[in-house]
Every structure is written in structure tokens, then in C-alpha cells.
Design a protein that fits this description.
Elements: H1 21-34, E1 38-44, E2 54-59, H2 63-79, E3 86-88, E4 95-99, E5 103-108, H3 110-116, H4 118-121, E6 126-127
Parallel strand pairs: 2-5
Antiparallel strand pairs: 1-2, 1-6, 3-4, 4-5
Helix pairs in contact: 1-2
């Protein structure tokens, strides 16, 4: 993992506009982890669907926390040249989906995550080891 992403700021950020989807996904994982996202998972879904190459699934502790995680991902990736095509669920803050093209981010409260069980739904997807990215 590129150590430049430890402190993504307007003055210091990697350029990801032409990066591989895995690099973008790992950057998102790192951003969410630094903002205290919970139980983050990275799934390679390219063999199961055409809608994305990777899903990032993250838990939040409250509607405010979920909105903050989504806002941070949008802001920090924007600094790196990657802007979302679409964001859904922000008003409610229970399950926010952010479409970065090849990477779709799901930030969910506990009830939504337990009910929809995305990890189980996409059980055939390859779980990517992110232990080297997580700092908490």
C-alpha cells in the first residue's frame, strides 16, 4: 500500500484517475478505516457481475457516522481524481451506496448489514486480504 495515502490532503495525494480498480478499492478501504469504519470487507466481484470489479462493504455506528464515512470517501477520492458516478441513500444514512465505476462502496448500519447480508449474498466473490491496509 502506498504510504502517500496515509494523509490524503489537498497538497498531498496520489493520482488515481487512471489507476487500476484494485488500487482505487484499497484506497477507499484505507480512507474508511482512517475515519473509523467498522468491519470493512473488500470483495472482488468481477466474475459474478458486470456492474463493478470490487465491492467495499463497511459498517457505521450511526446515521451521522455513516454520512461522515461516505462524505470522507467522496472527498478524499475526489482529491485523488476519482469522483463518484452516483451516491444513493445519503438522506436516510442507513445504507449509502457510492458508485465509483469499477468500485461500489456500501456503508451500512448494523440492522441493514445484518438483514441484507451482502457478504453472504456475494459469497462466491473473492475476499481480498486487507490486513496490511487496516491500521486499527
Amino acid at each position: 500500500m502506498d504510504k502517500n495515502i496515509d494523509m490524503i490532503t489537498p497538497e498531498n495525494h496520489p493520482e488515481l484517475a487512471n489507476a487500476e480498480p484494485l488500487e482505487i478499492a484499497k484506497t477507499i478501504v484505507h480512507v474508511l478505516d482512517m475515519k473509523k469504519g467498522r468491519d470493512i470487507k473488500l470483495l472482488r466481484v468481477a466474475d459474478q457481475t458486470i456492474i463493478a470489479d470490487y465491492f467495499v462493504i463497511c459498517g457505521g455506528t450511526s446515521n451521522t457516522n455513516i454520512k461522515a464515512l461516505a462524505g470522507e470517501a467522496e472527498y478524499k477520492l475526489g482529491l485523488c481524481g476519482v469522483t463518484p458516478h452516483h451516491m444513493d441513500g445519503y438522506q436516510e444514512g442507513e445504507w449509502i451506496a457510492i458508485d465509483f465505476g469499477s468500485v461500489i462502496v456500501h456503508i451500512m448500519n448494523r440492522d441493514s448489514r445484518d438483514f441484507y447480508k451482502l457478504e453472504k449474498l456475494w459469497a462466491d466473490a473473492e475476499a481480498i486480504d486487507i490486513s496490511d491496509i487496516l491500521v486499527q
